Description:
Blueprint: H1 2-20, H2 36-42, E1 45-46, E2 49-50, E3 55-57, E4 62-64, E5 74-76, E6 79-88, E7 91-96, E8 99-105, E9 109-112, E10 119-120, E11 126-131, E12 134-137, E13 145-154, E14 157-166, E15 169-177, E16 195-197, E17 205-207, E18 211-213, E19 241-244, E20 251-257, E21 266-278, E22 283-297, E23 300-305, E24 309-313, E25 319-320, E26 324-329, E27 333-339, E28 342-343, E29 349-358, E30 364-366
Antiparallel strand pairs: 1-2, 3-4, 5-6, 6-7, 7-8, 8-9, 10-11, 11-12, 13-14, 14-15, 16-17, 17-18, 19-29, 20-27, 20-30, 21-22, 21-29, 22-23, 22-24, 25-28, 26-27
Amino acid sequence: xxxxxxxxxxxxxxxxxxxxxxxxxxxxxxxxxxxxxxxxxxxxxxxxxxxxxxxxxxxxxxxxxxxxxxxxxxxxxxxxxxxxxxxxxxxxxxxxxxxxxxxxxxxxxxxxxxxxxxxxxxxxxxxxxxxxxxxxxxxxxxxxxxxxxxxxxxxxxxxxxxxxxxxxxxxxxxxxxxxxxxxxxxxxxxxxxxxxxxxxxxxxxxxxxxxxxxxxxxxxxxxxxxxxxxxxxxxxxxxxxxxxxxxxxxxxxxxxxxxxxxxxxxxxxxxxxxxxxxxxxxxxxxxxxxxxxxxxxxxxxxxxxxxxxxxxxxxxxxxxxxxxxxxxxxxxxxxxxxxxxxxxxxxxxxxxxxxxxxxxxxxxxxxx
Length: 368
């Protein structure tokens, strides 16, 4: 009975204050010993404006009506279209000036509705849904970066991985500073699988324990202007370069670098070659090998060549005379030449395919 009378007294007091319209709203705050009834009573006023009751007060909670985006159940007197409202079963939203911006539905689903569904950690770091099942890190024309830390003490002492655009180039690298230590990087795949590398959305190379081009006889290591410096092999060098020849004329087809540095001022080994000639009706081919040795003595380069060892196949009309190999000196290099005579015809095609097998480190530059 006493509690009922107390409740009636509070309701009566609230009605009296509403009818009288006090000049200023109550400024008291709830303390641990006050009831939710007092909280409800104080929230009725904002100046002299009377707002309708916003919910049902029980002994230990307040129940609000659903509300809407334009009129959220929990809002602000100075901005009544900004607040929280219930959309549907197990779903509530936050609206700003009547526009939904955040949705919580079930657990743990949280959706950002506006602007453009972005999660903004700050003004310049934004996560967004690019497409179905696609997460994007984007901010207009500003290049984005993702960093994963192995160790972090402060902005001057760390170890981290960098993933992002650097000067318009997509870059993956390790970084360290201060007390941080330079760390390695491992790129691997599951056993029995492979790693493909390519351009334009496709693969050009495949690593599956061996490094192979995806299409045979289609890719090179190095180029005519970007040469690989050294190949360290336990077996012979494979591959060749084709150079057009002038019939019965010594033609430069390769240059061998011979610097004056002690221990590197000589070159020796084998030239493995194939010479081919043809006209409209006839052809001949010769395959062989020739030994060579060259050196650089105080800026004077010279070479010696053995007798070519090979086999020639003609067609009864066209044939190839045994080639003669010579060399001329250059600036710390030698120009390797071959004089090949395609007899019996006036060749429309005459070329040499060649490779060098050498036991020491020298640079061979094929001549196109």
